[in-house]
Amino acid sequence: MKILVTGGLGYIGSHTVVALSEAGYEVVIVDNLSNTRIEVLDGIESIIGRRPTFYELDLRNELQVVELFDKEPSIEGVIHFAASKAVGESVENPLLYYENNLSAFIYLLKQLAVKPKSHLIFSSSCTVYGQADVMPITEKAPIKVAESPYGNTKQIGEEILKDTVKVSSGLSAIALRYFNPIGAHASAKIGELPLGVPQNLVPFITQTAAGLRKELAVFGDDYPTPDGTCIRDYIHVVDLAEAHVAALTRLVKGASSSDYEVFNLGTGKGSSVLEVIESFEKVSGSKLPYRIAGRREGDVIQAFADTEKANRVLGWKSKYSLDDALASAWAWERKLRNLD
Ligand code: UFG
């Protein structure tokens, strides 16, 4: 079965392309290369042993989307990763985020909704819960007012999808709410490629250890958590990729209990920033220079997933530990910087 992966050369997209190919799906990738490099395609090819079909195009151009579906009429499923994901940037440039994350999505849905049968997986985020009142967070937790335009695009994206599925007879969909994806493929041939100064914790840690950054700033140690630093649910990107295969296969088999379902994707385990540093130091065998800095605006105190629904319904469970994920992130950073 032919599956379109939008943003397939991005971080989560590239790992999912590998997992889909290994599960026997034929993958077509589109990417506009706005936040990645074409070399990722070489990495994918070298892992799976063939080069997936790739189109460099911009989904914000509806004509290009129409042409893509004309050229690839047998696409039956889409995993839609293509989107912008920097919270701070979204505050500064909201229209860019609404256009990137929503216009493109609408154009894709217009193509899928008219097919007799089609499946879609939407990349959502635990950001839709804001600071949830109860931990771990279940899919039934209330959706809070979005803290940023980025978060808003994920909430609105879910709503658009739900409304579209209701009126299109052939479309079934799943929204996956990711917690904090980290790590890289075991081969170290693909991984995260942040442009500029990394905003996320793990790439900042690995770049600091590699000598690109002087020290990590820990954003706040006065939170109401056991060690005072924020708690997140860090999930290995390879586990996350496998969850996409499980979700897609559920849609393809017609096994869904309704045409629109939502799942949390996390490990169920919360780790503090200091615990992440400690784990990194253990697996890398080196001391990480860091200092305690002020809180970062917009950070929630803690967020970790209740994974019961994904485990039971998707038959998927994360396999890798925080140590495993950080070891793979470090191997990837060393490879990128030719440190071995
Ligand atoms: N952190 C630091 N120093 C850094 C970077 C991060 O201490 O240099 C801390 C943050 O304060 C936070 C934790 O590390 O406590 C994780 O931060 P990330 O930026 O890696 O991840 P977030 O949880 O803030 O963000 C993630 C996704 C976003 C999404 C958000 C929803 O990257 O796309 O979850 O909560 F919006």
Q: Please tell me how large the radius of gyration is.
A: 19 Å
The CATH architecture assignment of the largest domain turns out to be 3-Layer(aba) Sandwich
Shape: globular
Order of helices and strands: EHEHEHEHHEHEEHEEEHEEHEEHH
Helix content: 40-55%
Distance between the termini: 40 Å
Low-confidence stretches: none
Quick check: average pLDDT? 97
CATH class of the largest domain: Alpha Beta
Stated plainly, the CATH topology of the largest domain is called Rossmann fold
Q: Assign the CATH superfamily of the largest domain.
A: NAD(P)-binding Rossmann-like Domain
Instruction: Write out the strand line-up for the largest beta sheet, numbering strands in chain order.
Output: 3-2-1-4-5-6-11
Query: Which distinct ligands sit in these coordinates?
Result: uridine-5'-diphosphate-4-deoxy-4-fluoro-alpha-D-galactose
| Tally of discrete structural domains | 2
How many helices? The count is: 11
Q: Helix/strand/pairing class, anyone?
A: alpha/beta
As a percent range, the share of strand residues is: 15-25%
What does the model show?
- The chain has 340 residues and is of the alpha/beta class.
- It folds into 2 domains: 2-183 and 236-265, Rossmann fold, CATH 3.40.50; 201-232 and 268-336, UDP-galactose 4-epimerase, domain 1 (Alpha-Beta Complex).
- 40% of the residues lie in helices and 19% in strands.
- It contains 11 helices and 14 strands.
- It has helices at 11-22, 39-48, 62-71, 87-92, 94-113, 149-167, 201-209, 237-252, 273-284, 308-314, 322-336, and strands at 2-6, 26-31, 53-56, 75-80, 118-125, 171-178, 180-182, 216-219, 231-232, 234-236, 260-265, 271-272, 290-293, 302-303.
- A 7-stranded parallel sheet has the order 3-2-1-4-5-6-11, with helices on both faces.
- It is globular.
- The termini are far apart.
- The model has no long low-confidence stretch (mean pLDDT 97).
- Bound molecules: uridine-5'-diphosphate-4-deoxy-4-fluoro-alpha-D-galactose (UFG).
- Uridine-5'-diphosphate-4-deoxy-4-fluoro-alpha-D-galactose (UFG) binds next to helix 6, helix 7 and strand 8.
- Uridine-5'-diphosphate-4-deoxy-4-fluoro-alpha-D-galactose (UFG) binds at residues 85, 87, 125-127, 150-151, 180, 199-201, 204, 216-219, 230, 232, 273, 296, 299-300, 303.
